[in-house]
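Fill in residues.
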């Protein structure tokens, strides 16, 4: 699967992309992540990507022309492509959306900056996505969140110890069950002893599975009350 991020900060994720699961996925050829500098698609000597808003108002608006040129250049006709504009006004990104995006060969993500992008960009994209009801400085973090959430659903990207099958949101909108590791009992600064629920030490896999199922429904509550 190929991700293409259109941005004015193409080097912003250099180190992040090389590390861990995403780094390995790229080395294995399962995922390709390309950054495209929007300034490469400008036509003036200052490589201008923004201008003041019609009608007045604060801030600058990203121009439609360079963005459309970038989309046209990146799109490959032999691939199924989804072109997405990142905007706080878009549809909320969810695990279900991440799953739905795995069906495309090529995803183009447009990261805005300043006050946003010229509304006419909407004519050249497939959908608008928000990663939550808050405002970021730019769409780069939103693009990366989508790249990561979609990539980990691609077969082979996660190792066998990192399965996504039982993760939060992977079936109904429930959350992952509570997880514990050593020590069996933990005390911090004279506080109460926090124990691992006994059921998890029982070796009874059927009962553990039932307990975990109950735990999925209430992410913040302990499945058996406080330990
Ligand atoms: N003036 C815009 C508004 O009030 O909605 C905010 C623009 S924001 C400073 C600049 C860019 O960051 C946006 O064009 C968008 O690409 C990106 N961005 C900010 N928050 C986002 C979010 N929650 N989800 C997706 N993209 C976001």
């Amino acid at each position: 699967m190929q991700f293409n991020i259109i941005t004015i900060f193409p080097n912003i994720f250099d180190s992040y992309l090389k590390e861990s699961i995403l780094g390995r996925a790229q080395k294995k050829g399962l995922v390709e992540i390309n950054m495209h500098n929007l300034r490469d698609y400008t036509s003036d000597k200052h490589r201008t990507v923004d201008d003041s808003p019609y009608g007045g108002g604060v801030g600058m608006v990203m121009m439609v022309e360079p963005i459309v040129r970038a989309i046209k250049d990146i799109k490959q006709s032999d691939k199924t492509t989804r072109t997405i504009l990142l905007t706080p006004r878009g549809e909320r990104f969810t695990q279900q959306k991440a799953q739905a995006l795995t069906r495309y060969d090529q995803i183009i993500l447009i990261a805005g900056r300043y006050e946003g992008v010229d509304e006419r960009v909407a004519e050249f994209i497939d959908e608008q996505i928000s990663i939550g009801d808050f405002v970021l400085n730019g769409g780069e973090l939103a693009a990366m969140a989508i790249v990561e959430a979609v990539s980990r659903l691609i077969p082979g990207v996660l190792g066998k110890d990192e399965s996504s099958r039982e993760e939060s949101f992977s079936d109904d909108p429930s959350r992952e069950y509570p997880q514990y590791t050593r020590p069996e009992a933990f005390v911090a600064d004279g506080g109460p002893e926090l124990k691992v629920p006994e059921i998890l030490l029982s070796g009874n896999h059927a009962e553990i599975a039932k307990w975990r199922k109950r735990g999925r429904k209430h992410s913040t509550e302990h499945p058996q009350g406080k330990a």
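The chain has two domains: 2-161, 174-221.
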